[in-house]
């Protein structure tokens, strides 16, 4: 499948796994994109929102940089405004206008790769925001403006 793009995901909260070719023959695969939307849903409310295609492409490129076949562990994908507000009340690290609410962000980890390596690989792509949360054991990636924290 020359030119195909795939993604490998594992939702830590629901136990769901997905390994899918989401782009082939010059276009996004509708059924695969729906499965991605579902696994990256707000696990607290069950709300599903279409995940930004640029974010999925970012994950595909990040996987290549990390040179691993391990899945991205989903800490947080899409977040409904209700969930985001609840998390903001508990933590100062949650943005009021989080890219998670726009389905343009993911908090992740990768088995067998340390966080500094994940952060460095994500920053090298220069495709959006990269947040580093070593005390919570995840890296945030989004497809907003290029920045890091």
Core attributes:
single chain, 8-stranded mixed beta sheet, about 30% helix, about 150 residues, alpha+beta
Describe this entry's structure for a reader.
With 149 residues, the chain is α+β, with helices and mostly antiparallel strands. It has helices spanning 30-39, 53-66, 81-90, 115-125, and strands at residues 5-11, 17-24, 27-28, 72-76, 105-109, 129-133, 138-142, 147-148.
What is the approximate shape? globular
Rg, Å, rounded: 14 Å
Low-confidence stretches: none
What are the secondary-structure elements, in order, as H or E?
A: EEEHHEHEHEEE
Please tally the β strands and state the result.
8
Q: Termini separation (Å)?
A: 37 Å
Largest beta sheet: what is the strand line-up? 3-2-1-4-5-7-6-8
Q: Provide mean pLDDT, rounded.
A: 96
Largest sheet: 8 strands, mixed
Secondary-structure map with pairings?
Blueprint: E1 5-11, E2 17-24, E3 27-28, H1 30-39, H2 53-66, E4 72-76, H3 81-90, E5 105-109, H4 115-125, E6 129-133, E7 138-142, E8 147-148
Parallel strand pairs: 1-4, 6-8
Antiparallel strand pairs: 1-2, 2-3, 4-5, 5-7, 6-7
Helix pairs in contact: 2-4
């Amino acid at each position: 499948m020359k030119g195909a793009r795939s993604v490998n995901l594992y939702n830590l909260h629901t136990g769901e796994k997905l390994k899918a070719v989401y782009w082939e023959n010059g276009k996004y695969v509708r059924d695969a994109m729906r499965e991605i939307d579902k696994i990256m849903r707000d696990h607290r409310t069950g709300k599903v929102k279409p995940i930004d295609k640029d974010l999925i492409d970012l994950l595909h490129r990040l996987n290549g940089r990390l040179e691993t076949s391990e899945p991205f562990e989903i800490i947080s994908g899409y977040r409904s405004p209700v969930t985001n507000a609840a998390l903001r009340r508990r933590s100062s690290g949650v943005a009021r206008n989080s890219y998670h609410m726009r389905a343009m962000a993911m908090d992740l980890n990768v088995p067998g790769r340390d966080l500094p390596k994940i952060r460095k690989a994500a920053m090298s792509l220069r495709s959006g925001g990269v947040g580093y949360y070593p005390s919570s054991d995840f890296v945030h990636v989004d497809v907003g403006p290029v920045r890091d924290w």
